[in-house]
Amino acid sequence: MAAAAAGDVHEEMLNRRVILKRYVTGFPSEDDMEVVTGTARLAVPAGSTAVVLKNLYVSCDPYMRGRMTKHEDPTYVPDFVPGEVLTAFGVSKVVASGHPGFAVGDLVWGMTGWEEYTLVPNPALFFKINHPEIPLSYYTGVLGMPGMTAYVGLFHVAKPKKGEYVFVSAASGAVGQIVGQLAKLTGCYVVGSAGSDEKVNLLKAKFGFDEAFNYKKEADLNAALKRYFPEGIDIYFENVGGAMLDAVLLNMRLRGRIPVCGLISQYNLEQPEGPRNLACVITKRLRMEGFIVTDHFGEYHKFEEEMAGYLKEGKITYIEDVAVGLEKAPAALIGLYTGRNVGKQLVKVANE
Ligand SMILES: NC(=O)c1ccc[n+]([C@@H]2O[C@H](COP(=O)([O-])OP(=O)(O)OC[C@H]3O[C@@H](n4cnc5c(N)ncnc54)[C@H](OP(=O)(O)O)[C@@H]3O)[C@@H](O)[C@H]2O)c1
């Protein structure tokens, strides 16, 4: 990173950033985003409690597509603004601080920008990284938002019991790989679906799923689920929606639970598909419950300690797909909607 002007640490630095060019309808393209170069001052305004962050890793997450749509009614997270930098979870180092809780050199994770340096007016929602001995990039995934999503959806919403039958879709992704491993630690029988044979092999060989299948090779999803769950499904961790949800509903057991985490098959459709088999919710006394992980960030530190323990003990393993360089971020994000990513998709912005 070249300095725009020579001087002390308060100098202006060039700041590459990814902006949204326009609101998106349908499938996003790389051209909806643009890498531009601005400048950043590595100092906080006098008297403020702001921090300046040097971003090391930024995350690509499926929900970001929703923020590229212009919503008439506000939703749970604000729309991106054309011409402005995209924001996302990331891992950063504090390089200037006016906040008593954050010192220069601190490693943090939280909602930052897809850019090299970010001025955060109020860092209160950032978490300090307590386990820098674990790969820092994991704080975009297993030790960050997606890992906590898996934990909350499984343990707070689905509440698995030993011996139950668990099915996970998008199972090799950032959230799914953790759901499956946590369910195995609980003593469940776990099957995952994924969109390639490579991912299916990972599920079985690396993450310890009991079974896995490539849903793109199954002409009849209902028949595939009957094959893997002859006794039915107790918990379906829902990541995709669409045809998979319809097939799952037919295969749920009495009083089954469906934590509705995401519906990625619907995110780029201009007309979402409706589920056809909702009557099963009545006849089988099912509980479907949506959740948003940020509602549970109050218990993040408990989660961080538990998950860091699993990682260190080798009870949980994690796979990442790292794009190197901010200029790769738009393609990396779009790849989530075609299944190009193998494991948690993130972007390395700078060397640690
Ligand atoms: N509720 C919350 O608070 C919360 C928080 C985080 C994430 N989520 C949701 O959790 C889900 C998983 O997120 P993640 O970060 O773990 O993503 P991910 O699984 O790492 O990446 C997305 C994956 O979705 C699959 N996919 C893409 N298009 C699809 C389609 N049309 N039909 C079926 N599968 C498709 C692809 O895997 P395959 O190759 O296997 O198809 C792709 O690799 C998403 O729905 C996301 O929105 C919710």
List the helices and strands and how they pair.
Elements: E1 12-20, E2 33-41, E3 51-59, H1 64-67, E4 87-97, E5 107-113, E6 117-120, E7 127-128, H2 145-158, E8 165-168, H3 176-185, E9 189-194, H4 197-205, E10 211-214, H5 221-228, E11 233-237, H6 243-251, E12 252-260, H7 279-283, E13 287-290, H8 300-312, E14 320-324, H9 329-335, E15 344-348
Parallel strand pairs: 8-9, 8-11, 9-10, 11-12, 12-13, 14-15
Antiparallel strand pairs: 1-2, 3-4, 3-6, 3-15, 4-5, 5-7
Helix pairs in contact: 2-3, 5-6
Mind explaining what this structure looks like?
The strands form 3 sheets. Strands 3, 4, 5, 6, 7, 14 and 15 form a 7-stranded mixed β-sheet that branches. The protein has a 6-stranded parallel β-sheet with strand order 10-9-8-11-12-13. Strands 1-2 form a two-stranded antiparallel ribbon. The two termini are 13 Å apart. Strand 8, helix 3 and strand 9 form a beta-alpha-beta unit. With 352 residues, it is of the alpha/beta class. The site of NADP nicotinamide-adenine-dinucleotide phosphate has 31 residues, from helix 2 and strand 15.
Keywords for this entry:
single chain; 352 residues; alpha/beta; seven-stranded mixed sheet; six-stranded parallel sheet; disordered N terminus; binds NADP nicotinamide-adenine-dinucleotide phosphate
